[in-house]
Amino acid sequence: MKKFGRDHTVLLYADTGNEAADNYRFIVQGAALLGVPLHIVRALPDWAGGKLITPYDVAMNSGFLPDFNAPECSSALKRTPLNKWMTEHATPDTHIVIGFSHEEVERAERMKKRFPHKRYCFPLLEKPYHFHCEIERELKSLGVEPPKAYKLGFGHANCNDACLMAGKGHYVNLYLKKPDVFAKAARFESRFRRRFGRTIFDQTGKYTLFDLIRDYKAGKLSRLTLENKHTMCACGVMWEDGKEG
Predict the structure, then answer these.
(1) How far is the C-alpha of 177 from the C-alpha of 166, rounded, in Å?
(2) How many other C-beta atoms lie within 10 A of the C-beta of residue 163?
(3) Is the entire prediction scored with pTM above 0.90?
(4) Cβ 60 vs Cβ 68: under 8 Å
(5) How far apart are CA 197 and CA 189, in angstroms?
(6) Which of 131, 136, 148 has its CA nearest to residue 24?
């Protein structure tokens, strides 16, 4: 914001319809701290009849569970509404500021190569580099607590900590820390399995979230699996998938 000034800066947030309440607190506090307008965009696809949709709705409608090669929910719930807003409000001279961290350098490079005409800015990739712990300390010093998901041991704060692309360690942690959210995910998986014959971790539909917790309680999961709660979310931002809506 120092680079462009308050009067020339707006914040965009794509609401997936399945976010933790604390995320909204964090976003509103952050916008207030910066003193710039916050615009929340949401997906209203034709097939939903004008209703807000969630990642579960996207999966049930498409018949596909998202993965790193085809993050369908990210495309429908984030990229499409963000692209629409940008088409209506941005200009070719608009700078698009994205908070990719040092762990996501390749994503930034892909975006610049695919869309050289877009004016991207990646402040966290500029030297001196800023790491997660430093950002967290700075936020706290300014009176803004990071999303609670990080305190609970999750690697990101998306989709109420029930990302459909998360790993087994993530879902064990979800079961332990947010059992109500885990139960909702398991109910979705049961519906999806009955209709499409697949589960979150198994294309054949034989291994469910309940089986995962059974194996966890029986001590059958490796230490590496249980420690892998910090899987990088594949959710993208506008234009990363090669489509400009």
Answers:
(1) 15
(2) 29
(3) no
(4) no
(5) 10
(6) 148
Question: What ranges make up the beta strands (E) of 24-89?
Answer: 38-42
5-25 confidence digits (pLDDT tens):
888 899 999 999 899 999 999
Return the number of other C-beta atoms located less than 10 Å from residue 201's C-beta: 16
| 108's tokens | 């930034």
What are the backbone angles phi and psi of residue 39, rounded to the nearest 5°? -115, 125
User: What CA–CA distances, in Å, run from 54 to 1, 17, 162, 197, 202?
Assistant: 31, 5, 11, 21, 22
Other CB atoms within a 10 A radius of the CB of residue 216 amount to 18
> Pairing relation of β-strands 119-121 and 95-97?
parallel
Torsion from C-alpha of 48, 52, 55, 58, nearest 10 degrees: 10
What CA–CA distances, in Å, run from 192 to 39, 59, 146?
A: 33, 8, 33
Q: How many residues does the chain have?
A: 245
> Token pair for residue 149?
């998901």
Q: Cis peptide leading into 123, omega within 30 of 0?
A: no
> Per the structure block, which two tokens stand in for 111?
């975006």
Question: Which residues lie across from 166 on neighbouring strands?
Answer: none
d(CA 101, CA 131): 7
Chain position carrying tokens 């807003």 = 85
The tens digit of pLDDT for each residue in 145-164 reads 999 999 999 988 889 999 99
